[in-house]
Amino acid sequence: MSTTKKYDLIKWDTPFAKVSFPSVYIIGDEKEDERNLIVAVAPDGVDNYPKFIIRFENVLAFKAEEEAQWTENSDEKLSLDPDSNSSFIRPNDSFWWKAYGNQMRDFNNTEPMHFYLFGGDYLVQVFASDNPTIEKVEESKTIILKHVV
User: Fold this and answer.
1) Is 67 helix (H, G, I), strand (E, B) or coil?
2) 145, 4, 144: which is closest to 71 by C-alpha?
3) pLDDT value of position 148
4) pTM
């Protein structure tokens, strides 16, 4: 008998939500001294436009896994159909929420959320206390990243 618990996800209404397995990849953080993350989504593949830039702020944790290995290595099973949607939000029962949710809520006075992006190359998860912004990119654009080491 399996002891793995199943979890339901809520569809996240994004401009690319109906695209099955878009290209999803992490670009990085564009601001110094802040916990931000930029994720790019290319619904029609990395060589085609439009693409979407998702800017997450106040990120506590994130993870990118190669999509083919994710279900084998996961200790949790999610009840979803990634063929019908590529972006989800997990209710406040996720492992990150259980570990950090109350502290983030107390610290930032916001409700943290656990975001999932199911891509054809990576599954990206982001746990952040602010709603991300999504920017549509119609042509090539340079994003400058700055880091102090």
Assistant:
1) helix
2) 4
3) 67
4) 0.82
Residue 54 pLDDT: 96
* Cβ–Cβ < 8 Å for 23, 120: yes
Cα–Cα distances in Å, from 45 out to 75, 88, 134?
A: 30, 20, 18
114 Cβ contact partners less than 8 Å away, ≥ 6 residues apart: 89, 90, 92, 94, 96, 97, 125, 126, 127
* Residue 88 host element (H or E): strand 87-90
Structure-token pair, residue 80: 């979803």
> Do the beta carbons of residue 53 and residue 47 sit within 8 Å?
no
| Neighbouring residues of 62: CB distance < 8 A, sequence distance ≥ 6 | 26, 37, 56, 124, 125, 126, 127
- Report CA-CA distances (Å) from 75 to 4, 68, 72, 114, 137: 7, 15, 8, 17, 36
